[in-house]
Amino acid sequence: MTIHMERAARLACWKGAVTPEPLGGGITNVNFVVEDTGERYVVRIGEDIPEHGVYRVNELAAARAAHAAGISPEIVHAEPGALVMRWVDGRTLDPAGVREPACLERILDTVGRCHRETPLHFRGPTPIFWVFQVVRDYARTLREDGSRMTGRIDEFLARAAHLESVVGPVEIVFGHNDLLAANFIDDGDRIWLIDWEYAGFNSPLFDLGGLAANNALDAGEEHRMLECYFGTPPGEARLASYAAMKCASALREAMWSMVSETRSEIDFDYVAYTGENLERFERAWEAVA
Q1: How confident is the model at residue 24 (pLDDT cuts 50, 70, 90)?
Q2: pLDDT digit string (tens) for 151-198?
Q3: pLDDT given for residue 2 in this prediction
């Protein structure tokens, strides 16, 4: 932590001497809050993570585009391995907060703006995030690392192939692709969306499925979410495709954690997180299989 803190303190953007304060919650980056001449900022320290498809140049481009779309804080400084954004004074959401009906409706407005408006401002080559290819690549990494889950890889791949066939043809939007509760901040006026490491073109169903899986939406909440997002009650075909994508989202999160068990240096209980997401995956699988 000391090395990261020293790096955050030495960034060229500061007007005076600063003392970074650790900001908890990150399981991919090391984050700090910095006050400089009366202004507060969040500093994210993190290099590329090829095994997760995380490349900071893509994250930066997405974050800048999302700010231009009015849904993410301004990036005030960036250099290799470090990103500085303006502090948002608001409530970082938890799953219970996401499930509040009024809050969920506002979240869906932000997600819809992400999907429709962010690509209008994106500069440079744009990535695509196809969860089934992510799962296939994770499977290769897990085998290379001799993961404790190696014995289940063929099972995961077979189930992912079934889900991909159920999803079928999809609409393409610009997705955030990591809709954990902690990536939403409610300032009382708007819902902000942060952390753009996995952003790229994708089906809207992946973000919606991830939102539901990560925040334990029940069946009624999921129906309301889909109706709110699409403006019409979901038909059988959309429900089937959505259920498969939600299941794939939970599998991807579990396999992300499996890879992180052996690759990440961040102090976090990835084994427990793997177990939580495998439980979500199995519950979602019951609705598809």
Answers
A1: confident
A2: 999 999 999 999 999 999 999 999 999 999 999 999 999 999 999 999
A3: 82
Banded pLDDT at 267 (limits 50, 70, 90) = confident
Q: At what angle do helices 101-117 and 204-214 cross, to 10 degrees?
A: 150
What span, in angstroms and rounded, lies between the C-alpha atoms of 262 and 52?
13
DSSP the chain: -HHHHHHHHT-TT-SS----EEETT-SSSEEEEEEETTEEEEEEE---BGGGTB-HHHHHHHHHHHHHTTSSPPEEEEETTEEEEE---SEEP-HHHHHSHHHHHHHHHHHHHHHHHGGGT--S---B--HHHHHHHHHHHHHHHT-TTGGGHHHHHHHHHHHHHHH-S---EEE-----GGGEEE-SS-EEE---TT-EEE-HHHHHHHHHHHTT--HHHHHHHHHHHHSS---HHHHHHHHHHHHHHHHHHHHHHHHHHHH--S---HHHHHHHHHHHHHHHHHTT-
Half-sphere exposure of 14 (CA within 13 A, CB side): 18
Distant-in-sequence, close-in-space partners of 137: CB < 8 Å, separation ≥ 6:
53
14 Cβ contact partners less than 8 Å away, ≥ 6 residues apart = 34, 36
Tokens (6 digits) for 209: 């499925």
Nearest to 29 by CA among 269, 264, 285, 281: 264
Pairing of strands 184-186, 82-86: unpaired
Closest CA to 12 of 81, 87, 113, 62: 81
User: pTM, whole model, 2 decimals?
Assistant: 0.94
The closest of 127, 129, 138, 135 to 263, measured between CA atoms, is 138
Q: What is the pLDDT of residues 45-70, one digit of tens each?
A: 999 999 999 999 999 999 999 999 99
| pLDDT at res. 239 | 96
